């Protein structure tokens, strides 16, 4: 692997991130719908040899190309987080989907510059779909730009969350209050829901108890498609966020949902 200068331009970083996604996909697919050794982490979430293999491959590629960059990963810990350049990796977002054969899991890759997500990748290996976000530019879905739906009112909106089990009692009550006024609500999807939001199929996603590797790659993707994504207080997402995330197709819809979440 050729070493790249430590402060490349965003175009180079985006191409490199896409290369990481291409590296990860065949590894995860080689394990998908095969017998797996499923372990439970301290938080009782599942982990498999596939998660570890995918992340290890991406970390090695980053270390070879950008040895001074930091890495925040789900399975193999963190390194050099005081760097101005940090990669945030979720090798298999949706491990519960992965181990049950559901083809909605993805690989999430984010690049942070001084703590701000500037490149984000949502890669869905089973469907070979990929959303690429780059700060200040239109999100790309495949070889075309994509756009969020433009939905401005909750009463017209489709609202997703991965699982009601991820909420605490207060958070679930707030989610129920939001979705009581929505056109429809659906469960499941993991990171796939945010890609669908960027492509205009889903209008909003509300979740809590996420980790930085679950949401930082989503930021450039959602924003580059015209959407808004923040925490439940309307603050930008970063490594120090509390894991409560709300994404919406438009600023107007986001503001309406946010007002209800704050009341909750």
From TrEMBL:
PANTHER family cross-referenced by the UniProt entry: 3'(2'),5'-BISPHOSPHATE NUCLEOTIDASE, PHOSPHATASE
GO MF annotation terms: histidinol-phosphatase activity
Keywords: Amino-acid biosynthesis, Histidine biosynthesis, Hydrolase, Magnesium, Metal-binding
UniProt organism field: Thalassovita aquimarina
Functional pathway: Amino-acid biosynthesis; L-histidine biosynthesis; L-histidine from 5-phospho-alpha-D-ribose 1-diphosphate: step 8/9
Keyword Transport attached: no
Gene that encodes the chain: hisN
Catalytic activity annotation: L-histidinol phosphate + H2O = L-histidinol + phosphate
Family from the record: Belongs to the inositol monophosphatase superfamily.
Protein name: Histidinol-phosphatase
EC number(s) reported in the record: 3.1.3.15
Superkingdom of the organism of origin: Bacteria
InterPro entries the UniProt entry points to: His_9_proposed, Inositol_monoP_metal-BS, Inositol_monoP_superfamily, Inositol_monophosphatase-like
Entry annotated with the keyword Cell inner membrane: no
Names of the cofactor(s): Mg(2+)
Broad EC category: hydrolase
